[in-house]
Every structure is written in structure tokens, then in C-alpha cells.
Amino acid sequence: MAEAVEFRLNATEWRFITGAAAIDGVPPPAGPEIAFAGRSNVGKSSLINKIAGNRNVARVSNTPGRTQQVNFFSVGERLTVADLPGYGYAAAPKETVAGWTELIRLYLKGRVPLRQVMLLIDGRHGIKPNDVEIMDLLDSAAVPYQVILTKADKLKRGESERMRAATENALRKHPAARPEVLVTSAEDGTGIEALRALISTLAE
Ligand code: GTP
Ligand code: MG
């Protein structure tokens, strides 16, 4: 019988490996990897901290553009988690934004150990044109992705259900997207156990 050892993300050590400001700074592959991607300020770093059960793993800020490189974490030596810079941040200098976007695109389409992308969408705003660009890139590179609605605590239950249904409907055009959308909040914990369970299945 296969041994079912539960991999509990919040009871496992998260060790910072390195931050890559350009694609040549990305570390050598070390087992399965997942990445958190999404528009600037959508809540990528906050969600990582929440699933880790430690608010200090990834840096969070009210100001968009907090995460300025791809930050890699080793989780119990069984999974690598990458926290990406946000895309679509208009207030940073043009070259900076272009550099991050290029890094995100190169990483997402060329990273060999990347098993799945967690694509975060603000639950209040839904899918935006620059999200569709990333979804198209992932579809054409055949990288599976899980769409996650964030900041559910800001929505009434009916609103988040409607947004979930509309988002799932839009995903039917995207072959690499998992069909079910997760609704989460790093604030009140909505959807966190489901997300941890999903991520555990991707670890070695
Ligand atoms: P960049 O690194 O700049 O791309 O941002 P990010 O996507 O990593 O977002 P970050 O986690 O830094 O959070 C941005 C802001 O949203 C912070 O002020 C967070 O406190 C807030 N935030 C994140 N998640 C939630 C949530 O679930 N609910 C609420 N209400 N606020 C959240
Ligand atoms: Mg961040």
C-alpha cells in the first residue's frame, strides 16, 4: 500500500533560497516547483504567508510593487515555491515594469520544474486584460494553472459566488486552466485549507 504521509505546509520549514532579479539569477531546479503569479497588489505574498502559517515568510506591503524579484523558498526540501513580482503596475518606472514583465514571462514559459502556477485574481475586480495575456502564455506553454480569487473577506458571500461562477465560465476558453476556481482570503482564512491540500499533492 502506498504510504500516505501528509505534507503539512504550515508545520514545515520554509527556507528562503534566493531572489532572482533577472532570468539568469534563477536557481538550479531542485524538485517540483509552484509559483504565485498575479497583478501587482493582488495578495500573492500574503497568501504565501498564510499557507505557511507565518506572516514573515514573504514581504507584504500596501504599496504595489513590493516584490521586485522572483523569491524562491524551499518547503521542507520537498517543494520549491516562487513568489513572483506583480504585473500591471503602472506607477513604477517604465524600464522597471518592462524588466519585471520580461522576467515573469521568461520564467513562466521556460521553467522546467514548474508543476503548476497559482494565478491570483482580485475577487473584487475579476480577470483583467493583462491576466488574459498571462493565461494565454501559460496555455501555449502548456503549464497548468489554478486560478485563485483573493480578498474574499472584502466581498459578501453572494458576490464572491457570482465572481467564482463568472470566472469559471471564462476559464472554459483556457485549456491549461484547472476548471475550478478557489475563493480565498489571507485575512479570514477562507479557502486556505483547500489550497494547502492542493499544494500538498504537488510536493515530492
Ligand atoms: P506585489 O508584490 O506588489 O505584486 O503585491 P502582492 O500581490 O504580493 O500583494 P501583497 O501580499 O503584498 O498584499 C497587497 C495588499 O493587499 C496588502 O496591503 C495586504 O495586506 C492586502 N491583502 C492581501 N491579501 C488580503 C486579503 O485576503 N484580504 C484583505 N482584505 N487584504 C489583503
Ligand atoms: Mg508580493
Describe this structure in a few short sentences.
With 204 residues, the protein is of the alpha/beta class. It contains five helices and seven strands; from the N terminus they run ββαββαβαβαβα. The chain has one domain (9-202): P-loop containing nucleotide triphosphate hydrolases (Rossmann fold).
Question: How would you characterize this protein structure?
Answer:
The chain is an alpha/beta fold. The chain has one domain: Rossmann fold (3-Layer(aba) Sandwich). 32% of the residues lie in helices and 20% in strands. It has 5 helices and 7 strands; from the N terminus they run ββαββαβαβαβα. The chain has helices at residues 44-52, 94-110, 129-141, 157-171, 192-202; strands at residues 14-20, 33-38, 70-75, 79-83, 114-122, 145-150, 182-183. A 7-stranded mixed beta sheet has the order 1-3-4-2-5-6-7, sandwiched between helices. Strand 3 (70-75) and strand 4 form a beta hairpin. Helix 2 (94-110) runs parallel beside helix 3 (129-141). The radius of gyration is 16 Å and the shape is globular. The mean pLDDT is 92. Residues 38, 40-46, 60-62, 64-67, 85-86, 150-151, 153-154, 185-187 line the site of guanosine-5'-triphosphate.
